[in-house]
Design brief:
The complex is a heterodimer of chains A (113) and B (113). Chain A is built from no helices and twelve strands. Chain A is mainly β and 113 residues long. In chain A, strands 2, 5, 6, 10, 11 and 12 form a six-stranded mixed β-sheet that branches. A four-stranded antiparallel β-sheet of chain A has the order 3-9-8-7, with no helix packed on it. In chain A, a hairpin with a 6-residue loop joins strand 5 and strand 6. The N and C termini of chain A lie far apart (41 Å). Chain B has 113 residues and is an all-beta fold. Classes of the chains: A mainly beta (113), B mainly beta (113).
């Protein structure tokens, strides 16, 4: 079974600085999708960024970017110019074809003013 | 605007009682999912459906059931609530099995006493 591991239960960063959240996954498939979801205190799950495994180019969405290392099965999220509104739980997730999402345990990100 | 809603948002019940959590989406999405979120586990899939009258078991389906009589709704039923089912429950939907994104509802916090 596929597994997703987030080894950092908590992270903190100063406002306006850059932070990187780590994620590793285990799969034997070559075609799959990876996601980062944000969960603010409101509990709503919000898609931050997504990556197709067959694409070598790393996905970017404004201040959010990923470092996708397929051979190493690593998918880290970089948040640049951190803002107070970025404070949330962040979940890495794996999806294979039409199958379900498998989530990591989450990383709680704190932004220090 | 299209959306996905869950009701109730908070529920307290007693062990042994039957509980039904509602999920309603107005996107006309074929795919709907139920997850539970517990500390240290991220989100885990309970049941999912790829269309009307289709239901499938997820990773943690024991003690739960779903039915899909129309496109918009996927109610989750706890046949005989147990304290181990105290959790936060999220419903999600996506357009088709290979769609990029699952859209999440706001969650239901369930306490079983």
């Amino acid at each position: 079974a596929q597994t997703v591991t987030q080894s950092q239960p908590e992270m903190s960063v100063q406002e306006a600085e850059t932070v990187t959240l780590s994620c590793t996954y285990d799969t034997s498939e070559s075609d799959y999708y990876l996601f980062w979801y944000k969960q603010p205190p409101s509990r709503q799950m919000i898609l931050v960024i997504r990556q197709e495994a067959y694409k070598q180019q790393n996905a970017t969405e404004n201040r959010f970017s990923v470092n996708f290392q397929k051979a190493a099965k690593s998918f880290s999220l970089k948040i640049s110019d951190s803002q107070l509104g970025d404070a949330a739980m962040y979940f890495c997730a794996y999806r294979e074809g039409a199958q379900k999402l498998v989530f990591g345990q989450g990383t709680r990100l704190t932004i220090n003013p | 605007d299209a959306e996905i809603t869950q009701s109730p948002r908070h529920k307290i019940t007693e062990t042994g009682r039957q509980v039904t959590l509602a999920c309603h989406q107005t996107w006309n999405h074929n795919n709907m999912f139920w997850y539970r979120q517990d500390l240290g586990h991220g989100l885990r899939l309970i049941h999912y459906s790829y269309g009307v009258h289709d239901t499938n078991k997820g990773e943690v389906s024991d003690g739960y059931s779903v039915s899909r009589s129309n496109t918009e709704d996927l109610p989750l039923t706890l046949e005989s609530a147990a304290s181990s089912q105290t959790s936060v429950y999220f419903c999600a939907s996506s357009e088709d099995p290979y769609s990029w994104t699952q859209y999440f509802g706001p969650g239901t916090r369930l306490l079983v006493l």
